């Protein structure tokens, strides 16, 4: 973003921050709901129902951006690849939520910026200087602090969380290829369709009947999913991504709160220390990329 553009959007940045805070709070509430329901429901049933109900709020965005005709992608293969990667990412992250405290899972998910930096070299041909490589190394050191291999008991939830972060990082790489050529509704609808196509065939074999409360929660999760993505889209329209991105880390606060209140999970000193290292690394990488883009402009 050029300085001139920043000046034009300066008065809108507080509104963008407000949308970002609301979006990440909504995502955190939805994640807590997923963890709660995963005790009695398959993650594939949760994904299917959540995606189905998410169409309701997203329909408003589709109409605002020109209706069904605006959904035609300019880069269909890239849009499809991004949607598939995000769908796989969600399967892994929901499984991680079912096996780990939310704070532990989020800490692993925050490794995505480091993975994007590392993957941008072979996949995008970008140059990464020693500063960002150092931040990547420090960030993965934070992962080792959390996992403490050889000292702490690891389970499939940890592997799923790291796999989720990897697929999310790959989706961000594809998103860089797409750029700003696709509408927000196109990207959202394609992701939800991918989730339905993956979870739909599995649903009959894992389906369990849900009472009124669980059905209401499943519907609520879908609405939250749609509203969260809408909030993030508006946040990025009102403020630069460099301003919006750091607020992603507010989710760790909600993870601790929900973990304590709903699940009785207390984050260990290792998780707290590791999350601080990982978040600091991610923020530094974001800052360095912002500096590099300004210099290139």
Primary descriptors:
297 residues; mainly alpha; 0% strand; 14 helices
In short:
The protein is an all-alpha fold and 297 residues long. It is 78% helix and 0% strand.
- Shape verdict: globular
Element order: H for helix, E for strand? HHHHHHHHHHHHHH
> How much of the sequence is in beta strands?
under 5%
Per DSSP E runs of 2 or more residues, the count of β-strands stands at: 0
- Share of helix, binned: over 70%
* Mean pLDDT across all amino acids: 89
Q: Domains counted in the coordinates: how many? A: 1
| Computed structural class | mainly alpha
| Cα-based radius of gyration, to the nearest Å | 19 Å
Helix run count: 14
Terminal-residue CA separation: 8 Å
For the biggest sheet, the summary is: none
> What are the segments in which pLDDT stays under 50 over at least 5 consecutive residues?
1-9
What are the SSEs and their pairings?
Blueprint: H1 3-9, H2 13-37, H3 43-64, H4 76-99, H5 102-109, H6 112-124, H7 130-147, H8 156-178, H9 184-199, H10 203-206, H11 212-238, H12 241-244, H13 251-263, H14 269-296
Helix pairs in contact: 2-11, 2-13, 3-9, 3-11, 4-8, 4-9, 5-8, 5-13, 5-14, 6-7, 6-8, 6-14, 7-14
Description:
This protein is mostly helical. The chain has one domain (13-296). Helices cover 78% and strands 0% of the residues. It is built from 14 helices and no strands. Helix 6 (112-124) crosses helix 14.
């Amino acid at each position: 973003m050029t300085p001139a553009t920043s000046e034009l959007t300066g008065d809108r940045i507080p509104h963008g921050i407000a949308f970002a805070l609301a979006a990440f709070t909504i995502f955190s509430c939805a994640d807590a709901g997923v963890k709660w329901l995963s005790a009695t429901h398959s993650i594939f049933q949760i994904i299917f129902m959540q995606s189905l109900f998410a169409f309701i709020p997203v329909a408003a965005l589709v109409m605002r951006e020109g209706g069904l005709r605006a959904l035609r992608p300019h880069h269909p293969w890239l849009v499809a690849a991004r949607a598939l990667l995000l769908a796989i990412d969600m399967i892994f992250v929901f499984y991680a939520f079912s096996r780990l405290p939310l704070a532990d899972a989020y800490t692993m998910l925050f490794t995505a910026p480091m993975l994007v930096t590392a993957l941008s070299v072979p996949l995008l041909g970008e140059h990464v200087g020693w500063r960002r490589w150092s931040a990547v190394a420090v960030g993965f050191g934070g992962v080792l602090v959390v996992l403490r291999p050889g000292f702490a008991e690891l389970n499939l939830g940890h592997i799923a969380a790291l796999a989720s972060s990897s697929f999310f990082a790959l989706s961000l790489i594809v998103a860089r290829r797409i750029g700003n050529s696709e509408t927000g509704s196109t990207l959202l609808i394609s992701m939800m369709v991918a989730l339905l196509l993956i979870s739909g065939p599995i649903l009959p074999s894992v389906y369990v009947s849900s009472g009124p409360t669980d059905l209401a929660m499943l519907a609520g999760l879908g609405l939250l999913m749609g509203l969260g993505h809408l909030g993030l889209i508006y946040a990025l329209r009102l403020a630069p991504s460099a301003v919006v991105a750091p607020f992603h880390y507010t989710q760790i606060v909600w993870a601790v709160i929900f973990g304590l209140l709903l699940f009785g999970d207390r984050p260990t000193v290792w998780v707290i220390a590791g999350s601080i290292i990982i978040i600091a690394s991610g923020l530094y990488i974001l800052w360095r990329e912002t500096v590099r883009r300004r210099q290139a402009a």
